[in-house]
């Protein structure tokens, strides 16, 4: 298939581009490089541009005869979305809706969307199935849910189908250590714990130690970035006109913040300096995926089914790329 991957030079996008190319697809990675990295994708596959320039995107859809779009491009800082919702509604919703409509007008019938467990909001359900009520508690989550709804409406009305993948917490790096996670600023726990272990930041902060969990810290489901990427490749094969799919993608097992820190110490042999802080607003105690639907319907399974194996790949990346992509 001829596929446009928006946000293709970002963390999850670049790993997915690699797998789509390996599966024999023709891939155009489209990225503004605001958060992505030129070196993360083959130069021949990268087009630098911003979704706000919708005519540029439209031209690519036509000239490259695009058959499917995998849409990663978005801003993903939940806290910032609360203080600056306009930035999130504009990039994550308005530009996504424009992209969707250009797909319709140009006959692109398959669409895979990066959704998130943040669309479920604060829930006490463990594990979470796709039937859980989606009640986001941040503008970020609201934009993702609103776009899921637009996709469903388009699939109901036009010759168009989609799959929304609701990721839990992406983690890890390519097995060969050549691409991995490099966000500035870094919002995610695992890279921060590695940075603290390597002495690049003075400590990692544990936000909340009094949650109703076995060790009092938040529990999350960490999914290897290559397992996430594989879900996109499989989803593309399942979409036809009218397809409306939504899948949770996680390993189905949660790890607490303290368990992440202990496993990083085990994998690196280094001590992680830790500071304890108060809870952050909007952090549910436990977020664990029930991923049985994607396993059953797409034949997907997590190759990295435990935290230690995921962190092993992340450590290889951080050790060999102490400054990330070093731009
Ligand atoms: N990382 C996670 O754990 C996680 C969890 C749930 C959902 N998601 C979603 O997955 C997607 C990818 O996440 P990621 O961690 O790889 O983030 P990322 O920031 O590494 O990748 C997003 C990419 O999109 C690009 N981009 C953003 N706006 C753009 C625009 N207007 N035009 C062109 N390019 C643009 C950025 O430059 C970046 O390279 C996002 O949609 C995010 O909301 C991520």
What does this structure look like?
The protein has helices at 11-22, 54-63, 78-83, 85-105, 139-157, 189-197, 225-236, 257-268, 292-298, 307-320; strands spanning 2-6, 26-31, 46-48, 68-71, 110-116, 161-167, 169-171, 204-207, 219-220, 222-224, 244-249, 255-256, 274-277, 286-287. With 327 residues, it is of the alpha/beta class. The protein folds into two domains: 2-170 and 222-249, NAD(P)-binding Rossmann-like Domain (Rossmann fold, 3-Layer(aba) Sandwich); 172-221 and 252-320, UDP-galactose 4-epimerase, domain 1, CATH 3.90.25.10. It has a seven-stranded parallel β-sheet with strand order 3-2-1-4-5-6-11, with helices on both faces. A three-stranded mixed β-sheet has the order 12-9-14. Strands 7-10 form a two-stranded parallel sheet. The mean pLDDT is 97. Bound molecules: nicotinamide-adenine-dinucleotide. The site of nicotinamide-adenine-dinucleotide (NAD) has 28 residues, from helix 1, helix 4, strand 5 and strand 7.
Provide a concise account of the structure shown.
The chain is of the alpha/beta class. The chain is 37% helix and 18% strand.
Helix fraction bin: 25-40%
Number of strands: 14
Structural class comes to alpha/beta
- Rg is 19 Å
Q: Looking across the biggest beta sheet, what order are the strands in? A: 3-2-1-4-5-6-11
Write down the overall mean pLDDT.
97
**Proportion of β residues?**
15-25%
The CATH architecture of the largest domain comes to 3-Layer(aba) Sandwich
Any idea of the CATH topology of the largest domain?
Rossmann fold
Q: Biggest β-sheet, characterized?
A: 7 strands, parallel
Low-confidence stretches: none
Terminal Cα span: 32 Å
Counted up, domains total: 2
Q: What's the helix count? A: 10
């Amino acid at each position: 298939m001829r596929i446009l991957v928006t946000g293709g030079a970002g963390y999850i996008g670049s790993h997915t581009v690699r797998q789509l190319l390996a599966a024999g697809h023709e891939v155009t990675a489209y990225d503004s490089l605001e958060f992505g990295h030129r070196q993360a994708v083959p130069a021949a596959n990268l087009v630098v541009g911003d979704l706000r320039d919708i005519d540029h995107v439209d031209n690519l859809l036509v000239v490259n005869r695009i058959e499917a779009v995998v849409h990663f491009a978005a801003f993903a800082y939940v806290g910032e979305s609360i203080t600056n919702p306009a930035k999130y509604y504009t990039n994550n919703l308005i530009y996504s809706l424009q992209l969707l409509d250009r797909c319709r007008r140009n006959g692109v019938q398959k669409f895979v969307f990066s959704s998130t467990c943040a669309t479920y909001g604060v829930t006490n359900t463990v594990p979470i199935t796709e039937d859980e009520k989606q009640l986001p508690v941040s503008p970020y989550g609201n934009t993702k849910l609103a776009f899921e709804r637009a996709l469903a409406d388009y699939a109901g009305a036009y010759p168009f189908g989609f799959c929304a993948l609701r990721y839990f917490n992406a983690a890890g790096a390519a097995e060969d250590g050549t691409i991995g996670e490099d966000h500035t600023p870094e919002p995610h726990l695992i890279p921060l714990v590695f940075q603290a272990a390597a002495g690049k930041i003075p400590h990692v902060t544990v936000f909340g130690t009094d949650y109703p969990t076995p060790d009092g810290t938040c529990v999350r489901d960490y999914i290897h970035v290559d397992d996430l990427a594989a879900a996109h490749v499989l989803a593309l094969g399942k979409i036809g006109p009218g397809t409306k799919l939504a899948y949770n993608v996680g390993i189905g097992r949660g790890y607490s913040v303290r368990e992440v820190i202990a496993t990083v110490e085990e994998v690196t042999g280094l001590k992680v300096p830790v500071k304890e802080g108060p809870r952050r607003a909007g952090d549910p105690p436990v977020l664990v995926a029930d991923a049985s639907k994607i396993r059953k319907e797409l034949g997907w399974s997590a190759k990295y089914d435990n935290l230690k194996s995921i962190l092993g790949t992340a450590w290889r990346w951080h050790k060999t790329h102490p400054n990330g992509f070093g731009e």
